[in-house]
């Protein structure tokens, strides 16, 4: 298995390409990742969305048009992408409409590209936030729930600091300390580093 990161869009959102002998996945769809994939000459079969805030789904429609299946907790909506709220903020946020092909079954892990992927619903940053744990590989794609030294902002529609902290404690802090965290923004970290140094998790 090989994981390569991509960062794009005006808020510098991370996407991750997971390549295996049995297929390829993308975690999130930030702006420009479709072109990046084309330049690498890689076919992507599945795109797993950690949540549907606009910066994580800018290229979702383009990736689906290129043949990838989109996976998410909820169907597309302008509330989840923040397009509705952005009008009130005076921000020109516009996401190309897309269709979710597969909605997550939170009672069962995903099995894609030869991987077992454990899912955890951790609302608080966004109502539809999901983390992906690659079972047996010690890697967690945390989206905007947990960052190096920080947590996702909770002042957006549907946000809740208590929900977010409770979910992190229940689903992430219980993982082995060496577990790698690959977040939606910024550098990677580990559970152990965050237990010791993240001021939000005291």
Distance between the termini: 34 Å
* Beta-strand residue percentage: 25-35%
Q: Please state the second-level CATH architecture.
A: 4-Layer Sandwich
Based on secondary structure, the structural category is alpha/beta
Helical percentage: 10-25%
Structure description:
The chain is α/β, with parallel strands linked by helices. The protein has a single domain (2-201), classed as 4-Layer Sandwich (Metallo-beta-lactamase, Chain A). Helices cover 22% and strands 29% of the residues. The chain contains six helices and 14 strands. It has helices at residues 33-40, 54-57, 60-65, 83-89, 161-172, 191-197, and strands at residues 2-8, 13-20, 23-27, 46-48, 69-72, 102-103, 110-112, 115-121, 130-134, 139-143, 146-147, 150-151, 180-183, 189-190. The strands form three sheets. Strands 1-2-3-4-5-6 form a six-stranded mixed beta sheet. The radius of gyration is 16 Å and the shape is globular. It starts with a strand and ends in a 5-residue tail after the last helix. 41% of the residues are buried. The mean pLDDT is 96.
């Amino acid at each position: 298995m090989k994981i390569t990161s991509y960062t794009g869009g005006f808020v510098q959102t991370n996407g991750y390409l997971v390549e295996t002998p049995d297929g390829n996945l993308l975690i999130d769809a930030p702006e420009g990742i479709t072109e990046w994939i084309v330049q690498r000459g890689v076919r992507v079969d599945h795109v797993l969305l950690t949540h549907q805030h606009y910066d994580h789904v800018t290229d979702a429609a383009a990736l689906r048009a290129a043949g990838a299946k989109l996976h998410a907790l909820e169907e597309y909506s302008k509330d989840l992408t923040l397009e509705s709220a952005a009008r009130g903020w005076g921000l020109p946020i516009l996401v190309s409409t897309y269709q979710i092909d597969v909605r997550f079954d939170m009672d069962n892990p995903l099995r894609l590209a030869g991987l077992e992927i454990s899912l955890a619903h951790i609302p608080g940053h966004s109502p539809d936030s999901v983390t992906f744990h690659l079972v047996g590989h010690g890697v967690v794609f945390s989206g905007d729930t947990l960052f190096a030294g920080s947590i996702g902002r909770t002042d957006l529609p549907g946000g809740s600091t208590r929900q977010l902290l409770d979910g992190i404690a229940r689903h992430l802090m219980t993982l082995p300390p060496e577990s790698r965290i690959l977040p939606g923004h910024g550098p990677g970290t580990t559970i152990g580093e965050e237990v010791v140094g993240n001021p939000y998790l005291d």
